């Protein structure tokens, strides 16, 4: 056994839970105590400054310089009570994760004496001089100025001894270099479009906000074992490893009791979350061994996403304290479940109506129905955009691989609601509604709440499921920034709602009353989007065939999926709704493709290295042992006996030798394929070459290595095996 593997297992045997005591008192005593929330603003800001912040949050009113100075000063005073020494603009560049550059409050005054100072200017805008973030060509390094600007709608918070100020990140020319900027635009777009539709029903509605409740799945691996797996360290997933004799087939991990070391980790994580005002609520084991999930109570999309970004960061740091490493990769282990990040999404009015929840009155249910039907059409029309928003080098192993759901978009409504829609189509026809027909229809619509309450059907295989008062987009990957799917969904919805309203207005202009016009357009939408509705098993092969027949799109190729961002429909949404300009969209596509290419490139290099420097030498050692054994047997046994005894041995030696040769050849071929791809100038061609000509080797080389793992003496196998990685005590 390699020293690494041996010591790792020894360390593992001695592990104990690292318990962290909860603070005494109630949760509400310390909840949010690291957040500069409204309560603290009231305490630390002069009334005028407080009013300015609230005005900015609620109505987008700009904050003037004097006010900004006052706010910065108040923020600093509060932060000092927590022993804070530094501050940072906290932003979400187009890499995985967040970025921060810490500055001390220290400044020198006129006399050269040290003072601690934090001005409004520093609060509101900064130039992080961060020229190495991916920008897809928007920012040339010679004018590498990117600016961060305060996002007032997300409160500042303290991590360790640093005051973090959530910001957007834009280029010198004002183009978005991050996830937050386009997200805020998409949320504004859906607010505007949805409010206009709501006003047709209720004049009192002034705002529609989007909510997000994410469910974060992850794996934990003991840190010593992790450190003995170069593939995990460098790529976040195992590039080799034969499946364990036992993994998830008994379903004994799902919702099972949580191991004490993991409970201790979760406890500390939750405590930190509460201090930071992240309302985490649910924790449980997931399907695969060592896989877990954490979900909060839903919040406004922008805040929820900041909280998810912050959480992923906290998870990494706290896991280390508990001698774990957290794996946020979508498919760290072949053959067992991957990790997703379900995005629970809803739209809610400022008058307190959840637009995806059935109401008590027929009119209220018309509003509900209007939004549900528009979601159907939005997903139907934007299948490619939605897929592009969640496709990545990691997530493609979850979507499209044999063991995972396919990358086909469909909506599960539950059979009652689905029948209801079909019923509406049948009852309504182009002719004028008679009063009796209208009564019947209203009766039907009036029954919706009880229908939904009664029907408890859930479908866990649907990528976009209606779950009673929200939609759950399940295709998003565990490592992703939720902004990406949330931009696609909210911008898509904004676009769809605007189109809907225009169609209704057109009919009204032609003399139809509003109610009838709405019915008519809804009917058309229900018919047009019918193919996106699917109630069956979304993981089955029959569905793949059926979906193809229905003309739904599907692809497991990452570059192909990403390029759909440039299709007419996606452009209509992204550029039409002013989420991106031409330049920004082009750069997003470039960044996404480049990210994919680089990840496959790194995986390919790491696998080549492991195959040639770890696996092949181990196989040769074992092969030599077998050869020696054969050789000495000859001295002991006579010829007939020897022949009989050695037949199997020889087969095994031949097989090992054969695999060694193929591995070497394929590593060579893979390197050559990489070289060809690397020579291409064009990012698009490069990504396609990596997808078509490099990534298949990752699978085939792995397959030979996994067979060798079964054949070679466990004692000399260099890397921790799946059964060790996945069954950490
Ligand atoms: P499940 O595993 O059954 O899908 P969870 O309880 O793990 O359910 O997660 C559900 C998530 O959906 C939580 O984050 C919850 O806050 C969120 N959620 C509930 N209602 C809404 C809503 N109206 N809008 C958005 N998210 C919601
Ligand atoms: Mg869920």
Structure overview:
With 729 residues, the chain is α+β, with helices and mostly antiparallel strands. It folds into 3 domains: 31-178, Ubiquitin-like (UB roll); 187-238 and 248-580, Creatine Kinase, Chain A, domain 2 (2-Layer Sandwich); 595-725, Four Helix Bundle (Hemerythrin (Met), subunit A). 52% of the residues lie in helices and 11% in strands. It is built from 25 helices and 17 strands. The strands form 3 sheets. Strands 9, 10, 11, 12, 13, 14, 15, 16 and 17 form a 9-stranded mixed beta sheet that branches. Strands 1, 2, 5, 6, 7 and 8 form a 6-stranded mixed beta sheet that branches. It has a two-stranded antiparallel sheet with strand order 3-4. It is globular and about 105 Å long. The two termini are 20 Å apart. The model has no long low-confidence stretch (mean pLDDT 90). Bound molecules: adenosine-5'-diphosphate and magnesium ion. Adenosine-5'-diphosphate binds next to strand 9, strand 11 and strand 14.
User: What is the general shape?
Assistant: globular
Unreliable parts: none
Largest sheet: 9 strands, mixed
The CATH homologous superfamily of the largest domain is called Glutamine synthetase/guanido kinase, catalytic domain
Radius of gyration: 29 Å
Distinct compounds present: adenosine-5'-diphosphate, magnesium ion
State the helicity in percent bands.
40-55%
Structural class: alpha+beta
């Amino acid at each position: 056994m390699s020293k690494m593997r041996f010591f790792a297992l020894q360390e593992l045997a001695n592990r104990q839970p690292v318990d962290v005591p909860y603070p005494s008192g109630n949760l509400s005593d310390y909840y949010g105590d690291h957040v500069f929330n409204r309560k603290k603003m009231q305490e630390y800001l002069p009334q005028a400054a407080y009013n300015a912040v609230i005005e900015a949050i609620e109505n987008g009113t700009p904050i003037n310089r004097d006010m900004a100075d006052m706010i910065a000063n108040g923020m600093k005073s509060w932060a000092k009570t927590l022993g804070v020494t530094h501050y940072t603009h906290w932003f979400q560049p187009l890499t995985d994760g967040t970025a921060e550059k810490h500055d001390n409050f220290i400044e020198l005054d006129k006399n050269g004496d040290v003072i601690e100072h934090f001005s409004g200017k520093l609060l509101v805008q900064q130039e992080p001089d961060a020229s190495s973030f991916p920008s897809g060509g928007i920012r040339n390094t010679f004018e590498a100025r990117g600016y961060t600007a305060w996002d007032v709608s997300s409160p500042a918070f303290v991590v360790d001894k640093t005051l973090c100020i959530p910001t957007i990140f834009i280029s010198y020319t004002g183009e978005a270099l991050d996830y937050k900027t386009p997200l805020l635009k998409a949320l504004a777009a859906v607010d505007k479009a949805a409010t206009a539709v709501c006003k047709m029903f209720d004049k009192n509605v002034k705002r529609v906000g989007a909510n997000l409740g994410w469910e974060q799945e992850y794996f934990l691996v003991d840190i010593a074992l992790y450190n003995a797996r170069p593939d995990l360290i460098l790529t976040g997933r195992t590039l080799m490893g034969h499946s364990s004799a036992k993994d998830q087939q008994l379903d004994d991990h799902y919702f099972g009791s949580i191991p004490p070391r993991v409970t201790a980790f979760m406890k500390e994580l939750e405590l930190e979350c509460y201090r930071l005002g992240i309302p985490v609520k649910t924790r449980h084991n997931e399907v695969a061994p060592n896989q877990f999930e954490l979900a909060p109570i839903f919040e406004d999309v922008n805040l929820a996403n900041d909280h998810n970004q912050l959480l992923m960061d906290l998870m990494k740091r706290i896991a280390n304290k508990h001698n774990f490493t957290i794996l946020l990769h979508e498919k760290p282990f072949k053959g067992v479940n991957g990790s997703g990040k379900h995005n629970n999404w809803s739209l809610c009015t400022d008058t307190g109506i959840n637009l995806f929840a059935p109401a008590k009155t027929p009119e209220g249910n018309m509003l509900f129905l209007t939004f549900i039907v528009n979601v159907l059409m939005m997903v139907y029309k934007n299948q490619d955009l939605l897929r592009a928003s969640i496709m990545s080098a990691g997530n493609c192993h979850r979507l499209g691989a044999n063991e995972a759901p396919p990358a086909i978009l469909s909506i599960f409504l539950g059979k009652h609601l689905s029948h209801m829609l079909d019923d509406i189509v049948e009852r309504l026809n182009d002719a004028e509604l008679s009063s009796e027909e209208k009564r019947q229809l209203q009766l039907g619509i009036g029954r919706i709440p009880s229908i939904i309450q009664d029907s408890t059907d859930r479908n866990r295989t649907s990528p976009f499921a209606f779950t009673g008062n929200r939609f759950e987009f399940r295709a998003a990957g565990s490592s992703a920034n939720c902004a990406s799917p949330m931009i696609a969904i909210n911008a898509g919805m904004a676009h769809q709602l605007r189109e809907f309203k225009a169609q209704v207005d057109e009919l009204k202009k032609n003399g139809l009353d509003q109610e009838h016009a709405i019915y008519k357009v809804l009917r058309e939408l229900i018919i047009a989007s019918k193919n996106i509705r699917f109630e069956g098993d979304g993981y089955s092969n029959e569905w793949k065939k059926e979906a193809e027949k229905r003309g739904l799109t599907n692809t497991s190729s990452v570059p192909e999926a990403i390029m759909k961002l440039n299709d007419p429909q996606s452009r209509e949404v992204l550029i039409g709704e002013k989420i991106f300009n031409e330049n920004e969209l082009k750069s997003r596509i470039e960044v996404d493709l480049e990210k994919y290419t680089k990840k496959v490139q790194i995986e390919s290099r790491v696998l080549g290295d492991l195959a040639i420097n770890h696996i092949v030498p181990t196989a040769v050692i074992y092969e030599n042992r077998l050869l020696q054994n054969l050789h000495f047997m000859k001295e002991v046994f006579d010829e007939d006996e020897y022949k009989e005894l050695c037949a199997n041995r020889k087969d095994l030696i031949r097989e090992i030798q054969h695999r060694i040769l193929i591995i070497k050849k394929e590593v060579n071929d893979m390197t050559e394929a990489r070289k060809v791809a690397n020579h291409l100038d064009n990012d698009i061609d490069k990504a396609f070459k990596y997808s078509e000509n490099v990534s298949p080797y990752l699978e085939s080389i792995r397959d030979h290595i996994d067979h060798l793992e079964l054949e070679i003496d466990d004692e000399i196998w260099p890397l921790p095996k799946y059964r060790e990685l996945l069954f950490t005590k």
